[in-house]
Amino acid sequence: MDHVLVKVKGLRKKPYLKMISDHTLYDPVGIDLGACVPYSPDHNLDEDAWFKIENFKAQPYCLKLLKADFNSVEYDDLTKGAFAKIAFIFAVQEGDFYFQKVTPSLFLKKKMIAFGEAAEVEDNNTRLVVNSLPDAIYFKDNDTLIFRNLATISSIFKGIDALYKEATNDEVEAFLEEDFIELSNGYNMDKVSKPNRKRVALAMDTLAALPEADRGQMYTYIHSYCEGKLEFDADNSTFEIKSDDELKYLLYGIEQRFYTTPLGHEKRLANSVQAM
User: How many CB atoms sit inside 10 A of residue 7's CB?
Assistant: First the structure.
């Protein structure tokens, strides 16, 4: 039997309540987990693609209810007084969990004409909009969570936003002090944008794994694609950074986002990458 439950704000001991039983809320989704993309904060999904997190039970932000066998008898029924306090809904369908974040805009209170066996006017009934697709799905047998937008589900899975790693002030300052960076024109840590802070965090991981002997090859690679966009001092092996846009190109270079098409030999920048 399928069930629809909710999490209610302000309840500590039993925050999850049963709203509807014996009802399938979402249509089955034909998703190939093998085709889903392991989450990366710098990856832009295709329109029909999903991110995935495997071994989800082992993650610190996994909900406790997903770690235990689901038994609907353990949950109390939702009362009318708690309707306005719903934080999110989740539907248990054939053992999998479908999640949807609930925001005030999803509550509708309008006079409507409902069409059932006959037309009927409904006045002052509050309705909760159910989206055509859930915000996240947990496949229990595969222990995998899929989703499309990390920010949307961060209020459901507390702590999951740690995956969206953004460099701290100390980390940004340490990166800008790298030997191959020469700051000028008053550009400093305070002028590094939020998107570039995310890219700095990724670049630091890349540099940490890059052998020192390969750095010269990295400089040559970046210079070959960014000539005219970045000033490179070959004698000192330094890139002059005087704006946030120039820092962005340097960070793209560290991540090897530049490539040349084999047919046509056109130089391009990959807006998003996925390891194959």
Answer: 20
8 A C-beta contact, residue 198 and residue 167:
yes
pLDDT at 98: 96
Do the Cβ atoms of 156 and 86 come closer than 8 Å? Answer: no
- Reduced to 3 states, what is the DSSP secondary structure of residue 198? helix
Helix (H), strand (E) at residue 182: strand 181-183
Give residue limits of the domains in the chain.
3-103+135-163, 169-269
For residue 272, what pLDDT band results from cuts at 50, 70 and 90? confident
Query: What are the helix (H) ranges across the chain?
Result: 64-67, 150-153, 169-176, 194-209, 215-226, 244-254
* Residue 37 burial (C-beta neighbours within 10 Å; 0-12, 13-18, 19+): middle
| 218 touches 275 (CB < 8 A) | no
> What gap in Å lies between CA 172 and CA 188, rounded to an integer?
9
pLDDT digits (tens, 9 = 90+) for 68-108: 999 988 999 988 888 889 999 999 999 999 999 998 888 87
β-pair partners for 54 = 144
Task: Return the closest-CA partner of residue 156 out of 13, 1, 16, 14.
Answer: 16
Q: Is 15 helix (H, G, I), strand (E, B) or coil?
A: coil
Distances (CA, A) of 191 to 33, 171, 196, 242, 244: 40, 14, 10, 10, 7
pTM of the predicted model as reported, rounded to 2 decimal places = 0.76
Angle of helix 215-226 relative to helix 244-254, nearest 10 degrees, comes to 130
